[in-house]
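Form 7-S
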Amino acid sequence: MVSEKEYVLKVVLVGDDGVGKTSIIRRYVHGLFDENFQVAVGTRIFSKDLVFEGKRVTLSIFEIGGQEKFRFGENILYKGSEGGVVVFDVTNENSFQSLDDWFGQIESNLDVKVPLILVGNKYDLGVFRKLQKEAILDYASNRGVEYLESSAKTGKNVIYLFQKLVQKILASPKYSS
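Output:
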């Protein structure tokens, strides 16, 4: 049975240019992947309606541009976010080195601690992988976040990552009462 109560949850998706943020969202929201999709500039907002554990949920996904100007300082687009996904490319070591900047950006722009998930995208390009999973798991553990590997191209873990984020948000004190 589906609850009449509806939850509107705002989440942010951040990471360097070219890590696949837009592709992850397009795969999740529209079920599409485009090999020739161009890097997004600025911020994009997507919406997805779903039923999660009998609850109606509208997920508003704010994709924050990966350009340098979005990486530092105050950004009102984060305000009101109840969860976040920090994305890097498993074939690009520089995108992994930028993670502290992205986590710092979320932490400095939100008044409260929110559930976050670290995502290593482009799993399907394993032959070009530059990062050892053990080092990534250590990083995630030190940050206190869950780590998932995904592929926007194949769809691996894309739906699961958003389900996991919604689960974490709805289990927070704000919603669990």
